[in-house]
Specification:
By secondary structure, the chain is an alpha+beta fold. It has two domains: 117 residues, Glycoprotein, Type 4 Pilin (2-Layer Sandwich); 70 residues, Dna Ligase, domain 1, CATH 3.30.1490. It has five helices and nine strands, in the order ααββαββββααβββ. It has a five-stranded antiparallel β-sheet. A four-stranded antiparallel β-sheet has the order 4-7-5-6, with helices on one face. Helix 1 packs across helix 3. The longest helix has 19 residues. The protein is globular and about 50 Å long. The relative contact order is 0.19.
Amino acid sequence: MLSSEEAKELITLGRLAVQSVLRGREPVVPSQLRERFSSKRGVFTTLLTFPDKELRGCIGVPYPLYPLWQAVLYSSINSAFKDPRFPPLRGEELDRTIWELSILTEPKEVPLEELPHAVRVGVDGLMVELGDAKGLLLPQVPLRYGWSAVEFLENTCLKAGLSKDCWKNPDAKIKRFQSEVFEEVEPWGEVKRVEASHCR
């Protein structure tokens, strides 16, 4: 469990990394942050316009492959500049954008016979893998749209570019995870723990 203060440190790290890229510089990570946030975790960074909170970018690392500080750096920079749904973030947008940070638990496979009942809407995030196709939706997404567990499964399949019933395929791997979510109150401002996300 992260505190809001720790989440603010990580969000600030991501913000400063994006600011460095905008200025044509290499991001700098203080050694104390590398040490304190060295555990490997999955991370998603969501960028939202302020104050209307429209999605501006969302990319992450679902598996705990990298130290937390590195995953935050990667997800922040890629959300800002490499989300194919949006143009790269411009310098003048930085002060009109808020950061939302989701820290993930390691995804665990759910046996087909336990679906859809094992999916806890509002608690679990979902991943689907079938062949080379992969899709992921964060735990907060079904709450925003009022989805049932079946609708959540269907939309995760659609996110992967698969048919909505792909979760019934014996060859599909359905995995669930949980996340802690933190969001800036305003750009560069205080950070609070939240229950809702705009990442989709």
